[in-house]
Amino acid sequence: MFGRRRLPICFGLRCTLFSAPLVTVLSYTKDPFVAFMLSLAALDIQSGFTSVHMLAKTEMFPARIRTRAVG
After folding, report:
1. Taking the alpha carbons of 37, 42, 44, 45 in that order, is the dihedral positive or negative?
2. Angle at 22 between CA 12 and CA 45, to 5 degrees
3. 57: number of Cβ within 10 Å
4. Could you tell me where the DSSP H helices lie in the chain?
5. Is the CB of residue 48 less than 8 Å from the CB of residue 10?
6. What does the pLDDT look like over 12-63, one tens digit per residue?
7. CA distance 5 to 48
8. Which residue among 22, 29, 50, 65 has the highest number of C-beta atoms inside a 10 angstrom radius?
9. In whole angstroms, what is the distance from residue 1 CA to residue 52 CA?
């Protein structure tokens, strides 16, 4: 839907804009359902990175040094 280039950009923007407020609200909440939903929101933000990071790393390096560069 977004593509391999847009997804990391969206991840970076969402992580920059929403990480600190999300953690702040999570530290003050007493309701378990709200804490669960905030945790799901954090996982949704993280999924933007984990879904494409290995593909992006393999495209960055030539095949002869890829294992050393990614490792």
Report:
1. positive
2. 35
3. 13
4. 6-28, 32-50, 53-60, 66-70
5. yes
6. 888 899 999 999 999 999 999 999 999 999 998 888 777 777 777 777 777 7
7. 11
8. 22
9. 13
CB 1 within 8 A of CB 48: no
Residue ranges per domain, the chain? 6-63
Neighbour-count burial of 48, counting CB atoms closer than 10 A to its CB (0-12 exposed, 13-18 middle, 19+ buried): buried
pLDDT given for residue 70 in this prediction: 65
pLDDT recorded at residue 46: 87
Task: Report the 10 Å Cβ neighbour count for 71.
Answer: 6
Residue 69 Cα distances to 50, 52, 59, angstroms:
18, 17, 11
